[in-house]
């Protein structure tokens, strides 16, 4: 994945050339520039969006960079303007949305199913859009994953509306703040020196690179007998065609390089990923 190639080059695991701005040269996963969109929000956001695009496909495409028409009723509510940027990821089914505001104060949050999103008003609203299969919160972005048969041209306006309505509502990101962020890489007194080193590498060297691609990794454990580290891929990294390359060529190589006790890395699938993998085998 893009962020990991940059990381691996510094650790001598990848010999690709980079330009001065950090984007790769001659790579199949090119860093796409942010696509900016001005959008405005009131309680009637969706109706305004629909009137602005006139029901045409070209209207949807104009959302990528054009200012939406300001067809407002002064009695409909106070207008709020947001500058939302989108960025592609190595996973063609996932897009990163930057609302121009902080999303997660600490850590990240993954919502692999609609049931897991019940604690977050924003994640719940995004799952209310037909075709959304996964939601992920990063420090300043929201990654949304769609089904294969859904089109971004039709999903983007709905996603923009959901993000705008949430930030204008004043609701908290989580109904229960205690479940807000994962603490998987927190170092505990009972952790061995090996486990502490693994967690530190994941938190300081590996996680930032993975988050640049709209995803994250979750530490699931280390078996000292086999030397296997178990990780779970989240956000855009889950189901990404290049996730296995990232896991083996990137994460595994780095952990084995710095921690001699590590002999390999394995991916642990969540229930949704296991169901998807099983469905793929049956086809």
Automatic annotation (TrEMBL):
Any Pfam family the entry gives: NifU
PANTHER family: IRON-SULFUR CLUSTER SCAFFOLD PROTEIN NFU-RELATED, NFU1 IRON-SULFUR CLUSTER SCAFFOLD HOMOLOG, MITOCHONDRIAL
Domain of life per record: Eukaryota
UniProt-recorded name of the protein: Scaffold protein Nfu/NifU N-terminal domain-containing protein
GO BP terms: iron-sulfur cluster assembly
Annotated Gene Ontology cellular component terms: mitochondrion
Domain (Scaffold protein Nfu/NifU N-terminal) ranges: 84-170
UniProt cross-references to InterPro entries, sorted A to Z: FSCA_dom_sf, Nfu/NifU_N, Nfu/NifU_N_sf, NIF_FeS_clus_asmbl_NifU_C
Function: Molecular scaffold for [Fe-S] cluster assembly of mitochondrial iron-sulfur proteins.
Taxonomic lineage of the native organism: Eukaryota, Viridiplantae, Streptophyta, Embryophyta, Tracheophyta
Family under the similarity heading: Belongs to the NifU family.
A GO term, aspect molecular function: iron ion binding
